[in-house]
Amino acid sequence: MTHPWNTVIEDKPQGKHFLANVLLLFVILAVFMEGGSRLILSIGSLRQRVFSFDNSSYRLQWVARHPHHMEWAWAGPFSIYNSTRGWAVKPGIRNMRVADGMLLTTNSRGVRGTAEYPYERIPGKLRIVTLGDSFTFGSEVNDEETFSRHLEVSLPDTEVLNLGVQGYGHDQMLLYLKDEGVKYRPDIVIVGFAYLDIYRNTLRFFAYAKPEFNLVSGNLVLTNVPVPTPDRVLATEPYRPKSLDLLLILKDKLRWLLGKNERDARDVTKALLDEIIATSRSVRATPVFVYLPVYEEIESHAKGQSYPLIVKSIPFADRERYLHGICQEEHIPCLFLRSRFDAEVKRGVDLHPQGHWNATAHSLAAQEMQNFLIAQGLIQNQPAGNLATRYRK
């Protein structure tokens, strides 16, 4: 007779028990982390406290806007998907009301304004292409009030093509120049340089998904092209681990505090600007950089929120020295507008520092650019209009 207490039970190896318990604990922790992360990122007030200047934060904000038909909120309702640059200005717009009733028109190629510019040059006409972000594009002003349009009206026998696009970094400006700008065979390429754009150069998601250049052994390597379509971004979003997003956001905050993001942004931007210079010169155009003062750079108490908090501690002069160093190294004409803007603010002139430039700021910028181009010998001193007189009104 066999008694239960005499039954021999084969023991499982203790190592297997330990491994199973560790795996179970890991699964439980992962589930709690994922659930907690999704909860944090689903509550608006908590989400805004967590978000930073990084890919995950911008992607999650874009996704959150989508159900409310605001998927192009930052790029503008006048934007369309572009497989190379992420988004572009929609062509063929006629008097669209944007930004407090301002009117927006684009030609058949998405260049702001009513004028059609053929790729073929018109003999005897100077041609200028302007590159930049929303300040060059002219958010919050009418078509006739952008600095590009002021330049075109004021300079004799001159075409000025506004290739500014809201939300662009220098990486997208470079691709726009390579894809379209060079086809116009410009004489001058003006880059409207806003310092905040250098941080966009390190992202693959900002106003929407975008291309990203990485520096590999000193060379630019293009990634994230073709840019995923909006449908694809939305289709893959439910399967993205939000715990990973949260960790990446926190990691990015640490990188800001350590100054690593600043160094990376400056390094890749230097390479991008060098490539813009080379591309301009390849079609015998003269590149010109213009430092555009924005937000708190215009007025110390301005409340612009486009810079990460840590970046606001960088002195204005240091930001300008960064561009000045590139201009000196590459022998590029470089104009800095802040001193003139500051002088006008002290006189009581409103340049709208809390948001995008107003019409007065655009007119002032165009006046300074015209004088600079004349001083550099790039255009003749035969103005068709008097920008100074118009500005003083």
Please explain how this structure is put together.
The protein has a single domain (75-243, 258-392), classed as SGNH hydrolase (Rossmann fold). The strands form four sheets. The chain has a five-stranded parallel beta sheet, sandwiched between helices. The chain has a two-stranded antiparallel ribbon with strand order 1-2. Strand 3 and strand 4 (102-104) form a beta hairpin. Helix content is 42%, strand content 13%. Helix 1 packs across helix 9, helix 5 packs across helix 13 (359-375) and helix 6 (170-179) packs parallel to helix 10. The chain contains 14 helices and eleven strands. The chain is of the alpha/beta class.
How is the CATH topology named?
Rossmann fold
What is the average per-residue confidence, as pLDDT, rounded to a whole number? 87
Strand proportion: 5-15%
What is the total tally of β strands?
11
What is the CATH superfamily label? Answer: SGNH hydrolase
What is the H/E order?
A: HHHEEEEEHHEHEHEEHHHEHEHHH
Architecture (CATH level 2) name: 3-Layer(aba) Sandwich
Quick summary of this structure?
The chain has a single domain, classed as Rossmann fold, CATH 3.40.50.1110. Helix content is 42%, strand content 13%. The protein is built from 14 helices and eleven strands.
